Automatic annotation (TrEMBL):
Protein name per its UniProtKB record: Glutathione peroxidase
A biological process from GO: cellular response to oxidative stress
Pfam families linked: GSHPx
One GO MF term attached to the UniProt entry: peroxidase activity
PROSITE patterns documented for this protein: GLUTATHIONE_PEROXID_1, GLUTATHIONE_PEROXID_2, GLUTATHIONE_PEROXID_3, THIOREDOXIN_2
Keywords noted in UniProt: Oxidoreductase, Peroxidase
Residues of the active site: C35
Similarity annotation: Belongs to the glutathione peroxidase family.
Source organism: Clostridium paridis
CDD domains xrefs: GSH_Peroxidase
Every Thioredoxin domain range: 1-159
Length: 159
């Protein structure tokens, strides 16, 4: 089993098989527009523009489970990200990332990389790094700046 066995709805409502990203390094992030970590969108977009989408993709999954910091509709979220941070990487519909209603992508990710405090995601902007073969390689805390992950992404892209 790999990340490619799952699908999710894009921010515009289109069902996307994650197998469309085969052969690319992925950084999957649960995001929120009203969080103290929201400025990480800027770093994420900078990495995305620098490394391109030939061999690398960032997949953003908005989530409203942490202090209701992502209250908007898909249109609200998309507009916020584009206007405030110039986000061009793929965004998906708002999902739950923990508990019994967690999206299957995040159930898989947290099973593969449970984290220091156990499986559940503790807050917005938890990041999962996936290699070109769809394997979960690493998990990063919300406090980890995306720029600190860049060298790990490049290493996987060159592997």
């Amino acid at each position: 089993m790999s990340i490619y066995d799952f699908s999710a709805k894009s921010i515009t409502g289109k069902e996307i098989s994650l197998s469309e990203y085969k052969g690319k390094v992925l950084l999957i992030v649960n995001t929120a527009s009203k969080c103290g970590f929201t400025p990480q969108y800027k770093d994420l977009e900078a990495i995305y523009k620098k490394l391109g989408n030939d061999k690398f993709e960032i997949l953003g999954f908005p989530c409203n489970q942490f202090a209701k910091q992502e209250p908007g509709t898909s249109d609200d979220i998309k507009n916020f990200c584009e206007i405030n941070y110039g986000v061009t990487f793929p965004l998906f519909e708002k999902v739950d990332v923990k508990g019994p209603t967690a999206h299957e992508v995040f159930r898989y990710l947290t099973t593969e990389k449970p984290g220091i405090l156990g499986g559940e995601i503790k807050w917005n902007f938890t990041k999962f790094l996936i290699d070109k073969n769809g394997n979960v390689v690493d998990r990063f805390a919300p406090t980890t700046s995306p720029s600190k992950i860049e060298k790990d992404i490049i290493k996987l892209m060159e592997a």
